[in-house]
Amino acid sequence: MNTLAKWLIVAFLVTVPLWLGNQYQYHVLIMMGIFTIGAMSLNLLLGYTGQLSLGHVAFFGIGAYTSSLVSLGFDLQLTDSYTFVVEPKPVWFAFFCALIVSGLCGWFVGKLSFRVRGAYFVIVTISFAEVVRLVALNWVDLTEGPMALNNIPPLASGVPWMEAGALSRRVANYYMVLAVGLVAFLIIQRLVQSRVGRAMIALRENESLAKSVGVDVTRYLVLAAITSAAIAGAAGALYAHYVRIVDPDVFLFIYTVTMVIMVISGGKGTLAGPLVGGLIFGILPELTRGHMLPEVQWIVYGALMILIVFFLPQGIVPAVQRGWATWQKRRDQSARDTSASNGRRQEVAR
């Protein structure tokens, strides 16, 4: 994707509120954007290092709870005589706290789980997500457990030009999600196109060979885990401040499955893959909602995923790239053949 195409896409996304007036459609776009950011973060691990994390929703939920608690304020009794009190903080401060805490959890899980590979790594990540969910469910004094944290401040709180009434709440949230998504995309792009990204790809392709040429496996995998977890935490914080209520269901396994589907269907290991996967599987349920029963929708959803994996095993974006390259190659070959044919005709004419 060239620079002009990227700028045209960004310009289109920025102008969406100028012609979209349906509030429900805003909701669909916002939720799709949030989970696309989560898919982008998962793609950094799955696509560029080859590590499948089925507990990625843990970082999403940690970001949601951290940002919610810091923005609401909380008190935690550590001993009989001492209570740790945090007064309500601005939303922007809570958001950055979510990034930091999620990143630290990514560092911890990376240090712990990257000692193993394959199915063992998957088990460790799933177990971590389940432990975090149980903590959120049972630590009622802090998280309110199944009663949920509610009245979470909106995402645009503290941003004067968004509070002034010039923008509706959903339009403001749309722009916030778009801004975070663009920043996350640029960070991932800068990372994977650098020396660090090349080292990650080398580990994915052949870890033994990468180690033999001096690539520090643990260092680069942990760096990917920290970055991926922080971006997932940002997506979770966006989710919390948008829906304004968070309960342990934020750790549901279906959210990880949704992110994995977006990555694999779009094309893992590509920058545009999660964006395309998020677009298709974010809008598809809404397109079929008014025409099919819920059970039929899930059948169509699953059938489309099977067809993509069967006919496009590397994803939609790599298939489009291969098709474009083949078309250009044929066009160039046709141009060369035409030029050669014209040259022969001119020689015959002479």
UniProtKB/TrEMBL annotation:
GO CC annotation terms, alphabetical: plasma membrane
Primary localization class, coarse: membrane
CDD domains per record: TM_PBP1_LivM_like
Membrane topology: Multi-pass membrane protein
Chain ranges passing through the membrane: 7-22, 28-46, 58-78, 90-109, 172-192, 220-240, 252-284, 296-317
Pfam families cross-referenced by the UniProt entry: BPD_transp_2
Compartments it resides in: Cell membrane
GO molecular function terms attached to this record: branched-chain amino acid transmembrane transporter activity
Region of interest: Disordered: 331-350
Keywords on record: Cell membrane, Membrane, Transmembrane, Transmembrane helix
Protein name, as recorded: Branched-chain amino acid transport system permease protein
Species of origin: Aminobacter aganoensis
